[in-house]
Structure formats: C-alpha cells, structure tokens
Amino acid sequence: MHQAGDIITLTASAWRLRAPLSASSYGVLWQAESVPGGVTAALKLVNTEQMALALPPQRACWTRSAGAELAFLRALQPWDRRHIVGLLDSGTHLGQPALALELLDGDLARHLEAVQARGDTIPPAQALDWIAQVNAALARMHQYGWRHLDLKPSNLLLADGGTTLKLADFGTGRALADRAPHPYTGTAAWQAPEQFFAGDDGAYRTDARADYFALGALLYRLVTGRALRYAGACADAYRTHGTAGAARLRAQHGGALPPTLHPDEAALFASRAQQAGGAHDTACAPLTMLLRALLAPRPEDRPRHALEISRLLARAGHPPAPALRSAA
Predict the structure, then answer these.
(1) 226 and 188 in contact (C-beta within 8 Å)?
(2) Does 2 reside within a domain?
(3) For residue 220, which of 301, 124, 82, 306 has the smallest C-alpha distance?
C-alpha cells in the first residue's frame, strides 16, 4: 500500500507522494512533487492490491488499459496539451505503468455538483465554450488514431480558474483502426447505443462517433442541468443487472432501443438555450440541430468529424476553435 512520503522513481525524475486524490477499480491517483525541484503532479499508479485480488483476465485488461493511456499520451506533441492533460513523466512501478500528469483544478463532475448545490446553473455561453473545447480535444485524439469511449464530466479536468477543460483518463481508449468487436467498456450513463447494447454475438462495435454521442449527452447536461432519461435508464439497468441490463431495457421497449432524446427534453434544451446570457433566438435552431445530430441513435446519422460539430457551434454563435478553423 502506498503512503504519503513514498518515493516513486520514473524515467525523468523521482516523485514524492503527498496526498491521495482519488481511486478507481484499478488505479490510484496521488498528489506528488518531484525530487528535487518540487514540481507538482498527479501521479497515476496501478492499484497493486486490487491487481493481486483480480483474476488473470481482469489483470490483463487493467494492464492493457494503463498501457493504452501511456501510449497515447507519449505520442502527443507539446501543443496538443491545450485541451488534453499533459504527461510530465512516465515509467514503471512494481512492474506496472506509472504516469505523472499535470495537476489541475479538479474535475467537471465535482464542479457541476457544487454549482447544483448552490442552486446555480451553467450559463449557456459557458456550456458552448466548454463543448467546443471538448470537441477540439476529441479532434486531436481522433487525429492520433484513437477513440476515447469514456467521455464524461469526471474525465474532464478544469484549468485556468475553470475557463479551460482538459480531457483525461485514456485507459478505455481503443485504436480507430481496430474495427473488431470488443468487450464492454466505459460508463453506462454516458454510452452511445452501440456501446451499451451488444450485437447478436455479445460484442460491441464502436468508432469515433461513439465519442460524439457522449459529447451530446454532455451538451444536454451542461445546458439543462439534467441528465438524459436515456442515460439514467442505461445506468439503472447496468447497476442492477450488469451487461445483461441492456437486453432487459430493450425488452421494456418491445425489442427496440429506448429513445435517446424525448420531445420534452428537446423542448427544455431549446428553452434553456434562449435564456439570458445564452444563445440568441436565431442560434437556438442550429444548437438543437447539433444536439439531435450528436444523440442520433445510429452512428451513421451523427456528425462524421469534429469540423461538422464546430460549424454547427459557429452557427449557434460560438467561433470555431483555431485548430478546427484552420482545417476548414
């Protein structure tokens, strides 16, 4: 078990653990500082205790996830860090991959919880700006040949006093070139239908457009302050029945997929988008069009790439991100 004061030696530096930040099923995140130098970082380590208890297939899956995240972050250029968390150092610890990441200001999930607890809402203009930033991050990830498959508020980190979002946690990432069916991965409340509902062979077939569905779910959450009912239904089904919950959920809808966006949800979204500080009336239609496109049940009906999303955001009053504008 790791303790405050432990020294973890990676490729470029040694890191002293200061305080635990969070933990997941297989990973632990520590606030750390370099020795010497005192550079702060978020040190991501494999949870060796959980690894020891897991069965070999699960251990192999966790090792693959850590390796995939490290491979993606190592490939990035310095200028890619604008909306993707930066890798400061990496190496191995106790035979498992270890990463030192830039330490930021917390995650969007906790920020949204705090906003809701105060009875406040996210201004629609801020929501659009954040969505544009996440779209730019996904554009970079897809450019490098990966899909994320776990886009959600807890994997978006705040920087610059909350004005900037950075995409993080790439352990679920899969290569875009890998079109083979794959096992279940991700978080039920933020999954596209093809990522939650398995094919007849019990496997899942995803591509970059699964990330765009999650972007649509995030857009709805930021503008309305609520989760999609579709997302809640998938989360409840998985919480109760695991992956078998998908079949039970379809059975409740006569074998069809449950609606990803209900008419009253679309109406609420349009209403909130027109509130003070948000999009003007003429921008509401393209913004609702974007939401419907991102949340299309079939992948082929969603935007093909980030530039399409950026253009719809521009029609809603948000200028394209510089990198996407230059590609137009």
Answers:
(1) no
(2) no
(3) 124
